[in-house]
Amino acid sequence: MWRRPLVRAVGLAGGVAAIGIAVDPERAADTLHGFARFKTATCAFLPMYTDYLRHILRCRGAEEDAVFCWTSRQVLWREVAERLRDLCRTNGGIYTKAGQHICVQPVSPQPFQEVLRCLMDQAASRPFHEDRLTFREDFGMEIEDAFQHVDPTPVASASLAQVYKARTHAGETVAVKIQQRPVARFLWIDLATIELYYSLLSYLIPGLRFAWLARETRRHMSDELDFREEARNADKAREMLSPEFAAHELQIPRVHAPLSSARVLTQEWCDGVRVDDKAGLKAIGADARAIAARIQRVFGRMIFVHGFVHCDPHPGNILVGKDGRVILIDHGVYRTLADDVRLTWCQLWLGLIRNDMGEMRAATAALGVDPELTKFFSLVLALVPAKVVEDVHGTSTSSVVRGGGGSGGGGGGAVFIDTGDGRDVGGVVGAAGGGTARGADKSDAQSAGGGGGVRGFKGGLDKLTTLGKREVLKDVMGVKLEDQTRLFETMPRDLLMILKANNLLRYVNEQLGSPVNRFRFIAQAAEQGLAVRAPDGDADLRRRRGLRAQVGALLLPLHLALLKAQLTFAA
Questions:
Q1: For the packed helices 339-353 and 539-570, what is the interaxial angle rounded to 10 degrees?
Q2: Among residues 215, 235, 247, 452, which is most buried (max CB within 10 A)?
């Protein structure tokens, strides 16, 4: 029953509180505060089931109206997402990080991605005296004594830490990153609470399957909270990439080891403009094409050649210097790919780019994934994050559609495909039996209507909504929701973070105006990655395959556009 996980959660929090107070009375306040955080989470998570029951009542008697039931489910997802957003803002720390992870997952329903996007912004700052205390505990001295000058106003605040600008006694300007005190104190009770409630909601609400994501958060959080690990990642990445990129091309900040610890990280200060700051890039005369190409080359070498990957390349972590150099910061989240996984990943991408389904199926199977999911896997890699068409029972087929809603009684949606050079190609899909407004752009699609009939729902339908369209998409892609979930659950764990990085790199390219075809850089890097293990006698074969891959990279946007047309006309 659903009550059992709830009883376990309450018992865990109560037990921790009782033990903490009995064993260490001085930490009673922290322990009670941890219990209060659990109570706050309970008050946010349990009403989500009430939201689901309202959805069931709304759809009772209207099960045959697929558009109404789908739209009602979007209302449900938005209500749940808003509760989760408010909880993340209240509790902060790991909760914010968990919300960010949901936001960027390809399988998250669109309302979650929209509502939780605000969690990616700068967090509210915490008092400077808390960070002074952390510094004193780690170094046995005041932060003002360790540096010639420290600006007490943080230049950046995130879910786990704050960054200050300081000047060393040698006169060098540095960035001092200090972990927020509540994060480590409540880490394990917060993680246990999130995991238990995700599991409970997965049981109660069909389609809300985030329990695996909570386990992934727990898996890597210890490393992310040890800034010594971040320092090691930065040093290793600099040593790895410095022979391949000149100083005016790529900069990874140097770590000041004597002024760094598990909770404090001091690095050289790097002046730069965020890669998505279009006005700032224009002011420094940055060449968007050169920057986009360099970013793709850097991450191509990381992923396909070295297998040591910065997995959080969001625009805030990629800066551009006045001389056009790419500055890569925040090295807390890295993944190391085993050599066999790295080589298989190269083969998977090259199979996709060459349109070689046999090679893709072999690589998919080698990764431990059902080869019958190969086509869907290719969509996850190459297209916009897959959205899910769901009905009240949670059954669905995958689709790569978003934007706009149908007008009139039939509903509709917009299909957009990432063409690889960042351009979206697409049109507005009309109602079943109706026509399509071909050649439309995003703004056309987003203004194409927004029917559905459920009060309180705003924003157009981003899915194909009729049962007939679902059957067509099932024939085209053959992927159900449970199979989609199975893909992510059976993949090697580290590749989940690589997929996240891939989505972020696509977004970065779009923010720069989509000046480059990403697939050409991926093909080149994947060929180089395979060459690392290939014998010298295969050089001629590698050249022929490399040419084929480059041709495939040029043709892949057309292939994806044709797939879009197949979906559009099928609808």
A1: 60
A2: 452
* CA 471/CA 474 separation, integer angstroms: 5
For the cut 50, the answer to whether the pLDDT of residue 269 exceeds it is yes
Residue at token pair 């800034």:
227
Judge contact between 383 and 391, C-beta under 8 A: no
**Catalytic residue list contains 538:** no
Instruction: Give the whole-angstrom CA distance, residue 124 versus residue 162.
Output: 10
> What would you report as the CA-atom Rg of the chain, rounded to the nearest whole angstrom?
25
C-alpha–C-alpha distance, residues 431 and 411, integer Å: 5
pLDDT at 544: 53
For helices 66-91 and 28-59, the axis angle rounded to 10 degrees is: 170
pTM given for the model: 0.71
**Bridge-based pairing state of the strands 436-437 and 424-429:** antiparallel
What span, in angstroms and rounded, lies between the C-alpha atoms of 13 and 10?
5
Q: Please, which residues have CB within 8 angstroms of residue 35's CB and are 6 or more apart in sequence?
A: 13, 14, 16, 17
Amino acid making up residue 365:
A
Pairing of strands 273-274, 250-251: unpaired
By the 10 Å C-beta count (0-12 exposed, 13-18 middle, 19+ buried), 149 is classed as exposed
> Which of the following is catalytic: 131, 312, 391, 494?
312
Q: What is the pLDDT of residues 310-342, one digit of tens each?
A: 998 988 899 999 999 999 999 998 999 999 999
Please say if the pLDDT value at position 43 is more than 70: yes
Can you tell me the distance from the alpha carbon of 141 to that of 139, in angstroms, rounded to the nearest whole number? Answer: 5
Beta strands at 273-274 and 318-320: parallel, antiparallel or unpaired: antiparallel
Residue 513 CB contacts under 8 Å (≥ 6 apart), including other chains: 288, 422
φ and ψ at 535, to 5 degrees?
Answer: -70, 155
Residue carrying structure tokens 């910065």: 310
- List residues bridging with 150 in a β-sheet: 166
Nearest to 258 by CA among 318, 344, 172, 185: 172
Q: Residue 499 in 3-state DSSP? A: helix
pLDDT digits (tens, 9 = 90+) for 287-307: 999 999 999 999 999 999 999
Provide the Cα torsion 552, 347, 486, 74; round to 10°. Answer: -30
User: What type of residue sits at position 188?
Assistant: W
- Distance of alpha carbon 220 from the chain centroid: 14
Q: CA 397, CA 483: separation in Å to the nearest integer?
A: 9
